[in-house]
Amino acid sequence: MARAGDADGAAFTRLVEPLRRELHAHCYRMLGSTHDADDALQDALLRAWRGIGRFEGRSSLRSWLYTVVTRTCLDIAEARGRRALPVDLGPSSRHAVVGDRPVPEVAWLGPYPDVDVGGGPAGPGVRYEQREAVELAFVAALQHLPGNQRAALLLFEVLGFSVAEIAAMMDTSTTSVNSALARARKLVERKIQSPTQQQTLRKLGDARLREIVARYSTALEQGDADALVALLTQDVTWSMPPLAHWYHGLDAVTDFAVRLPLTGCGSWRHLPTSANGQPAVGSYLCGDGTGAHVAWSIDVLTLRDEHVAEITSFVGPEHFAPFGLPASLP
User: Fold this and answer.
1) Closest CA to 298 of 108, 87, 21, 92
2) Can the peptide bond before residue 146 be classed as cis, meaning omega within 30 degrees of 0?
3) For the residues 95-102, what does the mean pLDDT come to?
4) How far apart are the first and last CA of the chain?
5) How do strand 328-329 and strand 307-315 relate by DSSP bridges?
6) Fewest CB within a 10 Å sphere: which of 117, 201, 298, 304?
7) Residue 3 above 60 pLDDT?
8) Residue 223, Cβ neighbours under 10 Å: how many?
9) CA 185, CA 152: separation in Å to the nearest integer?
10) Residues of the chain with pLDDT > 70: what percent?
11) What is the DSSP string of 236-282?
């Protein structure tokens, strides 16, 4: 600690490295974007390095770093605003929208690679396990909270800090923290459903889960509408940020799937992966039927029992590198 306090960059890096993954996951929960999380963590660690001489040891290093990281994220969230999914912008479309275009002016929620989900220590009051706390429904719900409520909920119910510790981190009173927690819990409970994806996945088992993912990929690659529909719930939704239109219900989703990905886009290939603690695939498209398949979207599947209740296709090649996926397939 002394060498880190003397501005030894290598010593400081060794000091914070064991906490880097869980700090990065906290940034993602706060900001809803892997790229924003990268920037926030880099900025926060720079602030921490410059200010480590002021660390007096009255709290743990972990607590002090979370203070710096949380305040950095609050600054970024206030400047940028919350991230959204298509469902936040308007009603679903009943029929396929051909020629739908990206909406760049919206700050879109992004996917998160599971390899970066930290497993830091947590107290007995923690309500959400680390992987539950990056599930899409949870992170999307967090985006509807003001920054102080978002931070309080994460610090208390995901990371296990006490109300008194959170009050010190956020430079406020315990009364304010308790009020923020109560408001945040009420909204989040209204927006997310039980069971969590982790509970569903554990019930399914790895073999059954791999089968569902393989059937989804094969149905798209073979243009098999019947096989795809057999996987879906009656109230399934399919959204594709940064495209604003989304589809709800088996009829609307089937119309979209048949007219666009199954017959109107080109040839598909897929690589299985995992995002937000959920099954996912990297989708690669060859639009003209020749040459390479290029990175198109990360499709995150939300399951209910043995069926797919939600498909969120995060469109854009920029999502692939954090997952360790190639930019194209030969």
Assistant:
1) 108
2) no
3) 95
4) 49
5) unpaired
6) 304
7) no
8) 16
9) 10
10) 93
11) EEEE-TTB--EEESHHHHHHHHHHTTTTTS-EEEEEEEEETTEEEEE
Half-sphere exposure of 265 (CA within 13 A, CB side): 24
Residue 253's closest CA among 281, 234, 270, 280? 234
DSSP 310: E
- pLDDT at position 116: 62
Exposure on the CB side of residue 290, measured as CA atoms within 13 A: 0
CB atoms within 10 A of CB 197: 24
Q: Extract the tokens encoding 176.
A: 């304010």
What are the φ and ψ backbone dihedral angles of 315, each rounded to 5 degrees? -85, 130
pLDDT in tens, 240-275: 999 999 999 999 999 999 999 999 999 999 999 999
Q: What is the pLDDT of residues 28-66, one digit of tens each?
A: 999 999 999 999 999 999 999 888 777 666 678 899 999
Using CA atoms, how far apart are residues 312 and 302, in angstroms rounded to an integer?
A: 8
pLDDT-derived band at 157 (thresholds 50, 70, 90) equals: very high
Q: What is the mean pLDDT of the chain?
A: 92
Q: How buried is residue 193: exposed, middle or buried, by Cβ count under 10 Å (0-12/13-18/19+)?
A: exposed
Task: Give me the phi and psi of 224, to 5 degrees please.
Answer: -100, 95
Contact at 8 Å (CB) between 328 and 286? no
- The whole-model pTM stands at 0.93
Spell out the alpha helix ranges (H) of 260-329.
none
Count the neighbouring beta carbons within 10 Å of the beta carbon of residue 156. Answer: 24
CA distance 302 to 280: 9
In whole angstroms, what is the distance from residue 167 CA to residue 179 CA?
11
